[in-house]
Amino acid sequence: VGQGLRDDLCYIPEPLTNGLYSGHGRRCPTGDNSAACRLVPGVPVSAGWVLLYGCQPGYRLNTTRVASICLQRPGGARWLPPLPSCLETSYNSHFLPSKNICGKSSHHRTKRRVDGKISSSGEWPWMVIFGHSKTTNPRDGIHWFCAGSLITTRHIITAANCVAPHRRRPAVFLARLDDLNLDDSVQDGMQPIEITIDKNNIITYPGFQPDVVFTHNIALVKLKFDLRITNSVRPICLPTPDFTERSFTGETVYFASWGQTDDDHERNPKRKRRFEPVLHEISGRVVDQDVCSLNYKMYQT
């Protein structure tokens, strides 16, 4: 794929088996309904056109690359690096923690409803908070802004809109684990782990577009070293492929995070939101997929 009737053009390939292609946001801004941006197979595109790709759950790319670009080369234009394929993968890959390691909390959880309860040590051992500073001076302090979940001993999953801008802006960008209260003046016996993040180790999903916040809004952050698993630092389990066949409608789920807890903000928008530095948790029930899609139909994902 990549060569066509004209040597100076590339051509949109056939759909990626067990995966998907997407156009780069700069070439295909929101609302562009051209044949190229709709990825109609066989449509010609000029040199410089970028094609992003990813695989469906249960499959992985046969390359570490996530994009190809149409480049002029002797003999004609072509996609470089060559377009990928998606290979079937097993959940029990050496890359992911086994079921007897991941998702284990030191607290027994019941199905009772929880509303804004303060969490305890080891209750959510996969929780991570990201912070940044505009300078390297420790006196300037760290601004904590987004949470994530540890999914291996070296990888964190989070929202792309949280971490993508920090690949270029702050002087210091770090992840903090094994902590309950971000206020360092509070003596709670915790010994948090702080790891500086290499901005080159922030990997956003290929289809993420910053101007469409909730579309493909997912990212991976790779740490500099493997963490040691303890009762208070432990990865969460990723869903297995069979999860797509199950219905969780009506089941109780739990959320944990640091951040805004001020319910009065909606009643008084002029009032500044209060950032809560203590890890809290809350429970809720899963809504039917059709109901969810109807309420959030303006978003693609």
Automatic annotation (TrEMBL):
<dbReference type="InterPro" id="IPR009003">
    <property type="entry name" value="Peptidase_S1_PA"/>
</dbReference>
<protein>
    <recommendedName>
        <fullName>Peptidase S1 domain-containing protein</fullName>
    </recommendedName>
</protein>
<keyword id="KW-0768">Sushi</keyword>
<feature type="domain" description="Peptidase S1">
    <location>
        <begin position="113"/>
        <end position="301"/>
    </location>
</feature>
<dbReference type="GO" id="GO:0006508">
    <property type="term" value="P:proteolysis"/>
</dbReference>
<dbReference type="InterPro" id="IPR035976">
    <property type="entry name" value="Sushi/SCR/CCP_sf"/>
</dbReference>
<dbReference type="InterPro" id="IPR043504">
    <property type="entry name" value="Peptidase_S1_PA_chymotrypsin"/>
</dbReference>
<dbReference type="InterPro" id="IPR000436">
    <property type="entry name" value="Sushi_SCR_CCP_dom"/>
</dbReference>
<feature type="domain" description="Sushi">
    <location>
        <begin position="26"/>
        <end position="88"/>
    </location>
</feature>
<keyword id="KW-1015">Disulfide bond</keyword>
<dbReference type="GO" id="GO:0004252">
    <property type="term" value="F:serine-type endopeptidase activity"/>
</dbReference>
<dbReference type="InterPro" id="IPR001254">
    <property type="entry name" value="Trypsin_dom"/>
</dbReference>
<dbReference type="Pfam" id="PF00089">
    <property type="entry name" value="Trypsin"/>
</dbReference>
